[in-house]
Amino acid sequence: MFCIQCGKEIPDGSAHCPYCGAEIKQNQEDIFLLQKKENQRLEEINFVKFLLLGIVTCGIYIVYTYYKFAKTVNKLCDGDGKESPNYIVVLLLGMITLGIYTQYWMYTQAERLRNAAPKYNCEIPYGGTKVLLWGTFGNLIIVGPILSAYYLLKSANLLIVNYNQEIINERYVISQYVGKKSKPILILLGYYGLRIILIGAIIGGTIFGSLGDSDIDDSTLDNIYEDEENTGEEETKSEKQKEKQYDEKKEYLDASVEQLQRKPDEYDGKAVRLQTEFMILADTIVTSTDGSYIEIKYDGDAYDKAGNSIGKVLSGDSGYVEGIFVNEDDFPYIKADKIVLVNTDEETDEDTEQDTEQTENTYILPNSDVQSVTSDDLKGFTYAEAQMAINEIYARHGRKFNDSDIQEYFDSQKWYHGTIAPEDFDEALLSQVEKNNIEFISAYIEQVALPNAENPKNLFGEVEGFYTNLDTDQVVYIGINNISDDHEGILEVGRGDSAPVDSATTMETYYLDYISDGTVIITDEKKGQVLRRGYINFYEDELYLDWDTDGMTGTYIKGQVY
Question: Residue 386 burial by CB count (10 A; 0-12/13-18/19+): exposed, middle or buried?
Answer without folding.
Answer: buried
